[in-house]
Amino acid sequence: MPRSVNAVASKARRKRILKGAKGFYGKRKNVYTVAKNVYEKGLTYRYVGRKLKKREYRTLWIARINAAVREEGLTYSQFIHKLSEKGIGLDRKVLADLAMNEPEIFKQLISSVK
Predict the structure, then answer these.
(1) How many Å is the Cα radius of gyration of the chain?
(2) Cα separation of 42 and 35, whole Å?
(3) Residue 3 zone, left/alpha/beta (φ > 0; ψ -120 to 50; rest)
(4) Is 37 helix (H, G, I), strand (E, B) or coil?
(5) Confidence of residue 107 (pLDDT cuts 50, 70, 90)
(6) Of 21, 49, 97, 100, whose CA is between 20 and 30 Å from 34?
(7) Which residues, in sequence order, are CB contacts of 74 under 8 Å at separation 6+?
């Protein structure tokens, strides 16, 4: 009896990996064993990058809020503490957007917190 290798499935698997490695440099794009390793590592970086993006945006928002609040004579931590005491539940993304695009409204918010 002939040996069954399921060539259709293995070719599809290789094709999927090589398609994912499209655009890579040198052997990384067309040699299956190399492409497989690089592609899997790329998937790992992609997963980690999604987590890092959230951290980096939060850092950016905090820096923007801090810069805007310091003009009014407060620090970032004092401002956030006073917001929580007043029960104002705006997140850092919204606060940073207000500080950048609506400075007058942000100044009113700071004065209401003081």
Answers:
(1) 26
(2) 10
(3) beta
(4) helix
(5) very high
(6) 49
(7) 82, 110, 114
pLDDT of residue 4 exceeding 90, the answer is no
Query: For residue 33, is it left (φ>0), alpha (ψ between -120 and 50) or beta?
Result: alpha
The dotted CATH code for 7-113 is: 1.10.1900.20
Q: What is the DSSP string of 49-112?
A: HHHHHHHHHHHHHHHHHHHHHHTTT--HHHHHHHHHHHT----HHHHHHHHHH-HHHHHHHHHH
Token pair 């790992």 in the structure block, residue: 44
- Reported as half-sphere exposure (CB side, CA atoms, 13 A), residue 106 has a value of 21
Size of the chain in residues? 114
Q: Give the start-to-end residue ranges of the domains of the chain.
A: 7-113
Q: Is the pLDDT at 53 greater than 90, yes or no?
A: yes
Token pair of 68 as six digits: 């805007």
pLDDT at position 3 is 87
User: pLDDT tens, 19-31?
Assistant: 999 999 999 999 9
